[in-house]
Write a structure and sequence with these properties.
It is a single chain. This protein has 325 residues and is an alpha/beta fold. The protein has one domain: Metal-dependent hydrolases (TIM Barrel, Alpha-Beta Barrel), CATH 3.20.20. The protein contains 17 helices and 8 strands. An 8-stranded parallel β-sheet has the order 1-2-3-4-5-6-7-8. Strand 4, helix 9 and strand 5 form a beta-alpha-beta unit. The mean pLDDT is 98. It binds 6-chloro-9H-purine and zinc ion. Zinc ion binds next to strand 1. Belongs to the metallo-dependent hydrolases superfamily. Adenosine and AMP deaminases family. Adenine deaminase type 2 subfamily.
């Protein structure tokens, strides 16, 4: 049983983790008590029992409810710090962490409160040996105008995040909807990523690349339905940040045994393994590696490839990448 030990011990980067999705039920209740927020669940156990999802939307409804306990800068710090400690335990050397400011500003939490708390935790993570950066995500179920407002509020803090992404309900909200706001982010020198091809069709992956001009695709597993797209992703070394346990819990694949990670790797794609929303999907990044390898029969060669891909696909600067690789 050397493979599980290798998977756990190998240095890795995590490129697809929503910090609000790392909020464990225990911390949700602790923050609810601290802030006097009433939750529609009586206990940690009752909340955990609600984590039975049938698709992306059924998860998002509970995920946004869980985030309602976050009010003060310290709350955002505590959430991010808890994730960063778990990341260190999984031998994550670099974490590129998504956050959803609109989930908080819509409740009256100032943008500075969100970003200052998260950023302070990322700075303190240097003491853990984790190099942590933030990526601001726009909620695609909201309008492009709301995304522009969000960007305007965040730009005074431009140096505290390295890029922008696009998340939330995919079907019915194609990348094209955010063409102009991504163009503005590009002018600002921000890195660009987008969720595409999680539940949505290969066409959304094409438009994320061609219209938004993203550098990475989050999920992207539906790309396997389109051979021309697979060739493009391989030829251009466009990383896919794959999240196997998320895909299982949201029923993108009915069984982990049927996950297409091996197909993506064997086609030469820069696929990576990530946790997405670890508090909700039953595992941090090492659990994603261990369970996916056990279910699909991937081997040590695949493990090395995935670790390499994670650093290669990261937005670390060239000198840091050289050190990792
Ligand atoms: C998400 Cl799994 C997933 N998909 C899309 N948006 C998200 N936000 C948090 N988790
Ligand atoms: Zn995600």
């Amino acid at each position: 049983e050397r493979l599980p030990a290798l998977l756990a011990a190998m240095p890795k980067a995590e490129l697809h983790i929503h910090v609000e999705g790392s909020l464990e039920p225990e911390l949700i209740f602790q923050l609810a008590r601290r802030n006097g927020v009433r939750l529609p669940y009586a206990s940690v156990e009752e909340l955990r029992r609600a984590y039975a999802f049938s698709n992306l939307q059924s998860f998002l409804d509970i995920y946004y409810a869980g985030a309602s306990v976050l009010l003060r800068e310290q709350d955002f710090y505590d959430m991010a710090w808890a994730y960063l400690q778990r990341a260190q335990a999984d031998n994550v050397l670099r974490a590129e962490i998504f956050f959803d400011p609109q989930t908080h500003t819509a409740r009256g939490v100032p943008m500075e409160t969100v970003i200052h708390g998260l950023h302070r935790a990322c700075q303190d993570a240097k003491q853990l040996g984790v190099d942590a950066e933030l990526i601001l995500c726009f909620l695609r179920h909201l309008s492009e105008e709301e995304a522009f407002d969000t960007l305007e509020q965040a730009l005074p803090l431009r140096d505290r995040f390295i890029g922008v992404g696009l998340d939330s309900s995919e079907l019915g909200h194609p990348p094209e909807k955010f063409a102009r706001v991504f163009a503005k982010c590009r002018q600002q020198g921000l890195h660009l990523v987008a969720h595409a091809g999680e539940e949505g069709p290969p066409a959304y992956v094409w438009s994320a690349l061609d219209v938004l001009k993203v550098e990475r695709i989050d999920h992207g597993v539906q790309s396997a339905q389109d051979p021309a797209l697979m060739k493009r992703l391989a030829d251009e070394h466009i990383p896919l940040t794959v999240c196997p346990l998320s895909n299982l819990k949201l029923r993108v694949f009915p069984k982990l045994e049927q996950h297409n990670l091996r197909e993506l790797l064997d086609a030469g794609l820069v696929a990576t393994v990530n946790s997405d929303d670890p508090a909700y999907f039953g595992g941090y990044v090492n659990a994603n590696f261990l369970e996916t390898f056990a279910a699909t029969g991937l081997d040590a060669q695949h493990a090395y490839r995935l670790a390499r891909n994670s650093f290669e696909g990261s937005f670390a600067d060239a000198s840091a990448k050289k050190k990792y690789l």
